[in-house]
Amino acid sequence: xxxxxxxxxxxxxxxxxxxxxxxxxxxxxxxxxxxxxxxxxxxxxxxxxxxxxxxxxxxxxxxxxxxxxxxxxxxxxxxxxxxxxxxxxxxxxxxxxxxxxxxxxxxxxxxxxxxxxxxxxxxxxxxxxxxxxxxxxxxxxxxxxxxxxxxxxxxxxxxxxxxxxxxxxxxxxxxxxxxxxxxxxxxxxxxxxxxxxxxxxxxxxxxxxxxxxxxxxxxxxxxxxxxxxxxxxxxxxxxxxxxxxxxxxxxxxxxxxxxxxxxxxxxxxxxxxxxxxxxxxxxxxxxxxxxxxxxxxxxxxxxxxxxxxxxxxxxxxxxxxxxxxxxxxxxxxxxxxxxxxxxxxxxxxxxxxxxxxxxxxxxxxxxxxxxxxxxxxxxxxxxxxxxxxxxxxxxxxxxxxxxxxxxxxxxxxxxxxxxxxxxxxxxxxxxxxxxxxxxxxxxxxxxxxxxxxxxxxxxxxxxxxxxxxxxxxxxxxxxxxxxxxxxxxxxxxxxxxxxxxxxxxxxxxxxxxxxxxxxxxxxxxxxxxxxxxxxxxxxxxxxxxxxxxxxxxxxxxxxxxxxxxxxxxxxxxxxxxxxxxxxxxxxxxxxxxxxxxxxxxxxxxxxxxxxxxxxxxxxx
Length: 620
Fold this sequence. Notes:
Elements: E1 4-6, H1 7-14, H2 18-26, E2 34-36, E3 39-43, E4 54-55, E5 59-60, H3 77-83, H4 91-99, E6 103-107, H5 114-125, H6 146-149, E7 157-161, H7 170-187, H8 200-208, H9 219-231, E8 236-240, H10 244-252, H11 255-270, E9 278-283, E10 299-302, H12 317-326, H13 333-340, E11 343-345, E12 348-350, H14 353-361, H15 377-384, H16 388-397, E13 403-407, H17 415-418, H18 420-429, E14 434-440, E15 446-451, H19 455-464, H20 475-486, H21 490-505, H22 513-525, E16 530-534, E17 537-538, E18 541-542, E19 545-549, E20 556-563, H23 569-585, H24 590-594, E21 600-608, E22 611-618
Parallel strand pairs: 6-9, 6-10, 7-8, 8-9, 20-21
Antiparallel strand pairs: 1-3, 2-3, 4-5, 11-12, 13-15, 14-15, 16-19, 17-18, 19-20, 21-22
């Protein structure tokens, strides 16, 4: 054997990990490498392959700096934990092993570390040629003793992620899912020549691509069975972002097909499967009511309102403080709190990890890093059918107010449009809201007091929520208002507002003042550089809407709203005049003047069905 070497010997010779060596062998990138049993044998004169990989869309092999780089987009646990600044989440493993539920579902917003945590579980549990304990020996879990260490590297693992399954037809989606599962079969090359498995023909058909597509929903069950037979130990099954294809199906019209396939796929491998040790799933929505997990009585659900595992997705305050110290930015903690803190998962205070990492990576420049990090087509549909009351509540949130709503953490895609409370349920589980208080309601749902969590989400909320309301007029019309504000042109501003109000009111025959208030509040919330407030005391009463300029050269704006049914043009004009008179009589400009803002534009606005009248007064 002098002319060959083991994986361990090659790893020492080439100064790369044993796991990487095994991967390169599996990919055929080491000439002459052969598998004997469960181990690879490599020619002694084999050359180290050139490392030209890009991992997780962000990683490139390069000389390390004195400070560990930040893992932007890195979801490979081995790389993240050894070559980047890694926030230790390995006590997740201890908490799981203390309870050991058969199947666990974790629902969290996008970019909160779901995939990285699942890869951590894979690395911990998976039985491989490499001694993967090296990735945990300097982590918190290893200090918990042999009780937990004995589980390390003891199980075969099936790892599937659907995070990139975003196709526009069911046929393309099914082909992509088959490709992903086939790749997992190919990863388990130990089954190719195993004499222990009873379904070798099925394995060969999957590898060859000749399996009937209509029968592929049993593929994960069959793989679990074969791994159990080969190793004598039932596998751990990890399915990451399981609901991505379901969202695509709902949005693009193949919902029934994807639901039927997923139900059979998951039931086969997770329900009453004697070839399963443990199962893990992650997603944004639970979608349990869709019967995807029908009859799965061994499923433990861990939503954002549950206390268990609450600190393992996202960063805790202590973890952010430690990171700030490491990157010599201790003085930035308060700014981090304002922008990225405020989430509550169970009883844990949580920072958005994606945004915190990007904040440090971009020299501590506060921005809304979380926006546009995922597909949000569903939001437009969620908001398209909402009523006047929901619209008003959505606009209250941007003012920093809280609202109370029934929350169903099992909200499903067909419900989000038909059930008004599902709007807030979806926004909460998707990361746009935080739960201030919650209590169990009748039927096992929650009654929650919700609000926007931080400054970043206030910005994202304006861009992704308010501007998707069907009552909001085209962006070009909003821009015309902004241009009028920037140019300090009161006449142009008045004309633009009149046009906007006419466009919006034309869609409604009979709506109340709450709608008009909500619409105007939503419009104002989208305007920059202004801070909008509503229903606050000033002078001798409460104004409807106030826009306080954040740039000194711009005027302050006060808007008073009135509405009545079946008004004539003359009556509507008189009503708008009454509104303007109320601004002056009750001295609603007191707050702005106290802040040193003396240039003020006042609008009296009156609505009646599809008609609108505006009168204005300005000292600007």
